[in-house]
């Protein structure tokens, strides 16, 4: 009887071995699950997006035929920028428009000049734009003369005039879009936008032409006024020329037609003239 009992009843050692094997199997299974789990220091949403969502790419802008793509690297003021083309940097002056002065140390900051610079910056800074030329390639300062496109439908030159940040200014022979700009200026004037609004209507009383500033006129160093206040026969715009300017020598002043001589830049600006850009 004792011998048969030993064959049918399990011993304590056998039970302990079985329990140990079951515990080992459970530990191996748990370790395998943890290896498959994502790292716990990364949010699940981030991990999912990174593995399932492709990176969205913005298509390049489409420009009118004949334009040169360029990257805007700096906005100088309302109508001048610096661009990079194939690794080289160029300064670009917008054709057909003029914004109030902000950077010329010889001239006071013009009304709505800071706003025009900010508007230009908001439109083009850091973007790829399309540059379109006209007849002239550069101006007297070596700047590229260009129409600047955001895409095939929007030209920066036109947007600045339309919204009252710039006036239309014709400089023949570069007048391809001048009638268009003139129409936009008329619209901005009628709506009193920007520099055509009440904020810029009040101007200081002009100083008499030829009156010396602290005993001497600019550019002459004497009481002689040598700044030529010309009135354009094409647009009727009042433009003044200083000695050394591109058109100074060929400009003849007709006082009977309302043209004038000025002692200082500030005299001319106060009287409603703007400086020639060439």
Binned, the helix content reads: 25-40%
Order of helices and strands: HHHEEEEHEEHEHEEEHE
Gyration radius, in Å: 37 Å
Tell me about the biggest sheet?
Answer: 5 strands, mixed, barrel
Helix and strand content put the structural class at: alpha+beta
- What would you call the shape? elongated
Q: Give the number of domains.
A: 2
- CATH fold name of the largest domain: OB fold (Dihydrolipoamide Acetyltransferase, E2P)
By CATH reckoning, the class of the largest domain would read Mainly Beta
On the 0 to 100 scale, the average pLDDT is 79
The CATH architecture name of the largest domain reads: Beta Barrel
Fill in the keyword field for this structure:
OB fold (Dihydrolipoamide Acetyltransferase, E2P), 278 residues, disordered N terminus, four-stranded mixed beta sheet, five-stranded mixed barrel, alpha+beta, 2 domains
